[in-house]
Design a protein that fits this description.
- The chain is about 75% helix and about 0% strand.
- It has about 80 residues and is mostly helical.
- It is elongated and about 45 Å long.
Length: about 80
């Protein structure tokens, strides 16, 4: 029981540190404007994950991983290395 309480307390402190870091990075930007930055980062993460997934499929099939059409034919953005 004591270990669970310690982890919960540690997690709360960690979350506060993350929010404090986000506030510093955000600077004077209004929270309503900050959503555009966050949504852009989420989009970049999404296309990066999809690219990596397709890249691995092409490697497994011994196809050309540099062929842009191999990505776009399955609606995946080509992200050059």
């Amino acid at each position: 029981m004591t270990d669970i309480n310690k982890n919960t307390t540690a997690d709360i402190g960690f979350e506060q540190q993350i929010w404090a870091a986000a506030d510093i990075l955000r600077g004077n930007m209004d929270a309503a404007e900050y959503k555009h930055v966050v949504l852009g980062l989420i989009f970049l993460k999404f296309i990066s994950d999809k690219f990596e997934e397709r890249h691995q499929e092409l490697l497994d099939d011994d196809d050309d991983v540099e062929d842009k059409d191999a990505y776009t034919e399955v609606n995946v953005f080509f992200v050059p290395p």
